[in-house]
Predict the 3D structure of the following.
Amino acid sequence: MLQSSAAAQTGFPLVEGSQSVARFVLQDAAAPMQWDAYGAMSTHSGGSYREGERAIVMRVRRLARAPLAFGMPTTQVPDPGLFGPGSATWEVTGDASAGVGGIRALLLQALHPSAMATVDRLSDYRRSTWGRLLRTAEYVGMTCFGTTDEADRTAGHVRALHERLGILDTSELLWVHAALIDSVLDSYLRTHPDAPADFGDRYINEQRLAATLVGIDEDDVFATMDELKNYLEAMRPTLAVTPPAMTAADALLVPWMPWFIRWLTPAVPFWRYMMTASFICLPLWVQNAYAESLDDVSPAMRRLILNACKGTDEQRLQRADRRIRLIRKMAMASPAFARIGPHVSAAYQRLGMRAADHH
């Protein structure tokens, strides 16, 4: 939500496991000298550029030269980072379902009135949404898949930003953290019904470390699914769909994008499909709250919300499961270089492993 570590963790469709071709080529474009390294990564991870794909990649590379906010991920240091292979964090955050969870998190985080008031004060929703999403993806990639030094350095940048902007309320940061891990885990469990019974607890417990990166005391952070559920339930009376929350949600439906992404990639229709899936995966009470606050919303967002709220509770839950499973299936059918984000690729490569064998 906020352009912060916890806020940055809001991840987005760009949470590592679901990064699109557009995101990959943008990160590649940021470092022209890294083409061979990325080409090696894509081949090493089980994918290769077809000629048409390469032409699009090269075209976007010529048009996009903005540097990454937190720098390029290293492939040279054999450090597994804060979590490493076999962790629930690598499994969940690197999964193709994580993008839906990232957008769901933004919609859920928006219900915190004071946090949204801060966002309203500091940002221009329409013009800043895309950039915030990209920075969010970079933050999540660096902290979850970077080396220990990369994770600490990235978190340090965000903490410094918090101080400059006066974002020091750890209760707001805890809400942002809770909404993110609840959403990304929800997306994973919907698409992995055979996950071990203790998997959710493992992930939530690991993510306590991620919360400390933004200055939250580890003792204040939930460690199990039951504790997270109790926290979310306790927060319900304090949450509301305020005008800033609805404006932010509306901006998410059709975020401003650079023209070369809008016209040279399938980002717009895929994004809308992702947005719809993310909304219908929200808790039903959250969907209903949005449906009761339609006074100042675009016609497209109004249709999305009203269509999502049609049917019985059971029908709505089943519709959400079908939509997110289809999105994951589509993502898994894409080439490895498009499916696997650069931070994931770099993490596995520096450990001498194949990312495509795990994601």
Q: What stands out?
A: The chain has one domain: 5-357. The radius of gyration is 19 Å. Residues 5 and 214 are 6 Å apart (CA to CA).
